[in-house]
Amino acid sequence: MLAEPVLLMGLIETCRATIAANSEHLCALDRAIGDGDHGTNMRRGCEAVSAEDASVSALPLPDALEKIGLTLVMNIGGAAGPLYGTLLMEMGRELRAPGEKRDFPSALKQAINAVARRGRSHVGDKTLLDVLYPVQDALAHRLPLTDIARQAELAAELTAAMRAMRGRASYLGDRSIGHVDPGASSCALLTAAICRYLEE
Ligand code: ADP
Ligand code: MG
Ligand code: MG
What's the gap in Å between 34 CA and the centre of ligand 2? Predict the structure, then answer.
């Protein structure tokens, strides 16, 4: 299984540009309930992936996803690095799983479960998982790309009403309520950007 190199390079660039354009916004969200670095962290991670886009895009898709995940772990840092990294690495592993042909939604589901285990977090804890679960659900129900993008954006907005149970924001307890989770926001931005790109 070969990744369509041009498509993957386009997706990498779309993600990089989206995070670069929203980096300050993500930092502002993180200043409200964390330490203010989420935009900077994500930007560093995406730029590192961009720097190796040609070599990564030449790999079979599972290998490419694993490599991107590893780069994200090493370069995003913080709490989000290992979580986004796990998502991509597990996607790669799932899509490679021998003997069975995994479809994309079920691979994503397994990868999201791995992120939840890694973060010891659940739905409603006010994290990026509160975007990932609805996105996976929308994908499994074969919703159109525009609807998936909208679901992701809506899901990120809904984290404002939640009380943070994991990560730095959890130190604030009830004071975390009323603010959108930065990780949920980056996840929605990336999902929407990917959906828009794939639709063109
Ligand atoms: P840090 O908190 O180390 O500065 P970031 O600011 O880059 O890391 O990322 C913060 C985001 O990571 C949060 O908004 C949240 O979405 C996510 N996050 C933090 N801890 C967890 C966890 N245990 N499980 C799932 N997501 C988490
Ligand atoms: Mg932070
Ligand atoms: Mg930090």
Answer: 5
Rounded distance between C-alpha atoms, residue 86 and residue 100, angstroms: 21
Closest ligand to 31 CA? 2
Q: Which residue has the tokens 């995994």?
A: 102
120 DSSP 8-state letter: T
Domains in the chain and their CATH numbers? 5-199 (1.25.40.340)
Q: What is the DSSP string of 13-59?
A: HHHHHHHHHHHHHHHHHHHHHS-S-HHHHHHHHHHHHHHTHHHHHTS
Three-state DSSP at 114 gives helix
pTM of the predicted protein model: 0.96
Max Cα–Cα distance, the chain, nearest Å: 49
Cα R_g (the chain), whole angstroms: 16
- Residues 24-55 have pLDDT tens digits of 999 999 999 999 999 999 999 999 999 999 99
Reported ipTM? 0.99
Which ligand has the nearest atom to the CA of 35?
A: 2
| Ligand 1, CB within 6 Å, residue ranges | 30, 34-35, 37-38, 41, 78-80, 83, 119-121, 127-129, 166-168, 181-184
C-beta separation of 166 from 180 below 8 A: no
137 close to 130: Cβ distance less than 8 angstroms:
no
Among 109, 149, 157, 91, CA closest to 130: 157
Nearest CA to ligand 1 atom 5: 38
